[in-house]
């Protein structure tokens, strides 16, 4: 066999190695993104399960606020229906409406001191607040994975084979920031920056979360000017 034949064999071998490496890398990124979404799904379902208890607790004290209570109930039903679609865009819109209705409910509850003195209500309020924080953290982590995965699909030479291999981009999960018209956090949904309470993660320049144990992510954070641990 001549030199030309060996060159062809070497090129084929390198091509196969690259295809295997690229495929495995995309599968890993896709699975990580799907796992991140499952964390969001768990927290959203937990919030949906808490809302009926909240409505039952407050309706005896807020009988004149029927419209507010119905808005929360309807928003929850819409969020559950959107969750069944699995579409992050639809889910994000429905969850935004639910967050807005909850903010209205907690704002109105400020006018009922007797209600705020009930431990069942305050416990539900605190649990919902904690769930909101977890959703926000999970959202940032998911969006960070989506960003990295989608970039991998769009960059050459991976973009030439990603579609053929069945890899498709994920949609970002755009959720409500929990702020009212005046820019202040509303009662009952006061959020802290979740990323600051989870070691091993840092917020990237576009608001996503990346693991500080990832050398590629660390390099990206370094050039983006983000602090390291």
List its salient traits.
229 residues; mainly alpha; de novo design (two linked rop proteins); 2 domains; two-stranded antiparallel sheet; 7 helices; 2 strands; rod-shaped
Description:
This protein is an all-alpha fold. The chain has two domains: 3-198, Up-down Bundle (de novo design (two linked rop proteins)); 199-229, no CATH class. The protein has seven helices and two strands; from the N terminus they run H-H-H-H-H-H-E-E-H. It has a two-stranded antiparallel sheet with strand order 1-2. A hairpin with a 5-residue loop joins strand 1 (201-203) and strand 2.
Walk across the major sheet and give the strand order.
1-2
Mean pLDDT: 81
CATH architecture grouping of the largest domain: Up-down Bundle
Helix content: 55-70%
CATH superfamily label of the largest domain: LemA-like domain
User: Describe the biggest sheet?
Assistant: 2 strands, antiparallel
Note the total helix count.
7
Radius of gyration: 23 Å
Which outline best applies?
Answer: rod-shaped
What is the total tally of β strands?
Answer: 2
Strand content: under 5%
Q: What's the end-to-end separation, in Å?
A: 56 Å
Brief account:
The protein has 229 residues and is an all-alpha fold. The chain has 7 helices and 2 strands; from the N terminus they run ααααααββα.
SSE arrangement:
Layout (H helix, E strand, L loop, with lengths): L2 H56 L7 H20 L2 H22 L3 H4 L2 H36 L4 H4 L38 E3 L5 E3 L3 H10 L5
Antiparallel strand pairs: 1-2
Helix pairs in contact: 1-2, 1-5, 2-3
